[in-house]
Predict the structure.
Amino acid sequence: MSNMKTTSIRGEIKETIRVLSEEVGQRFAGTEGEWKGTDYIHQRLSELGVENEKQVYPFVGWEPEGTPELEILSPIPKVLKTAYLLFSGSTPSTGIKGKLTYHGIKGLIPGVYDMPCYNVLGAEGEILAQVVVNSGGDPIALLNPRAKFPIPAVVMSYEDHIRVQELLSEKHDIEVFVKVEGKIKECKSANIISHPYKSKNTVKKKKVIVCGHSDTTLNTPGAYDNGSGIAGIVEVARRLKTENHDFPFDIDVIAFSNEEVGFIGADYYVNDLKEKGTLNEVAAVINLDQISAGDKIWSWVGPEDFRQKVKESFREAGAYDRDDFEVDVDTPKAGADEWMFHLEGIPTALLMFWRLPDYHRPTDTMEKIEYDKVELIIETVFNLLNRIE
């Protein structure tokens, strides 16, 4: 590939990330920003001549109100940094006071993202609120893994968690103040489903899905998570549309919405195919999420024979020859959109770099993007497509 062509392609990738992270910005579930993001992806694919449609669906959303508050009242008064636990219940508008006690572990992504958890107890021992810990550092907006139980809850930093553990080990009673407000609301969203490649094989009707999620969590412009993945799938769609390929299956490129609040877009799509009786046409799913920064490729893949294909695809792309990151091709985990397909027995691969320290923060901006990593993942996608039968 000529340097001029490479520069042009990189410019297109950069522009997609710029629009999503700077012009649109936060794309949280059910908000105007989320709709602007899906509209842009629809428009961009249409400009490339790629047939695509919006799959609009209703869902139960959540909207924060005000700013969450967390404060130790005794034995040592301190206002703590905090963030929302998405789909939290609400305290009274004046907040609550109670005794902080250690509860256990909430598994956001079991074995990957485990969150220590505290209860805030009232005078009769009833649970008034919960405080969960971001084991990765300062508080960031995280999904409540048990959202159907709307206990008021906020996120605490790992540093404050260590200090609280010290106070509890010294047999101190800890009184805290918690205030958090949010409301459940009816929302609509859309997956963008495109069809850049139709196979010449008319005997065996199969398709492979290449996907990425279009939304963000709260308070982040989402360049790495997941403007980079969307830029990746748009480039995959462009190449499938304009280059000569001979795959024995169709390829759909899909931007799933609302991954950050529980894989809602992917869940809707999978169940729609099940109801139509066409889910068995999906031969494999390749998901691009957080593909632009980090010191490790962490790819969650199954089953084993598909895992071997992914390893070979990374090797062909030169990933194992790099000394600025390691490659870990792991087993499937309940942490991204492809999980909904894995549950149905479909071969799945998450292609992901782990992890930019600015993940889920306001500082997840486009100047942190490493474009050579995005391009390597895109090349791996095509290597893998060539290995799927």
Observations:
- Helices lie at 3-24, 32-47, 158-169, 223-242, 264-276, 304-316, 339-342, 371-385.
- The radius of gyration is 22 Å.
- The mean pLDDT is 96.
